[in-house]
Specification:
It is a single chain. This protein has 78 residues and is an alpha+beta fold. It has a domain of 54 residues. It has one helix and three strands; from the N terminus they run βββα. It has a three-stranded antiparallel beta sheet with strand order 1-2-3, covered by helices on one side. A hairpin with a 2-residue loop joins strand 2 and strand 3. The longest helix is centred in the last third of the chain and has 17 residues.
Length: 78
């Protein structure tokens, strides 16, 4: 499905997120191929969904795979 060594990516630090720090060397954003990445004080946001009117919080496995695969490809090309 994608080239990440990890089989699962979990983003649920909740109350434990406070001590997390962003990577200071990530001082750029990118928008490419309907994907976006930007740093925040508490991490890095990877995204790429633009579904007008879809307010569901459920994860769409196809969208998730497209986003992870697309960002991995962009990262490899840097």
């Amino acid at each position: 499905m994608h080239d990440l060594a990890e089989q699962v990516v979990v983003s649920c630090t909740a109350l434990g997120a406070r001590p997390l720090q962003r990577q200071p060397d990530v001082d750029y954003i990118y928008l490419a191929n309907r994907l976006y990445m930007f740093p925040r004080n508490d991490g890095i946001v990877l995204g790429g969904t633009f579904d007008r009117g879809d307010w569901s919080l459920a994860v769409d496995p196809a969208q998730q795979a497209r986003i992870l695969t697309g960002h991995a490809a962009i990262y490899r090309s840097l």
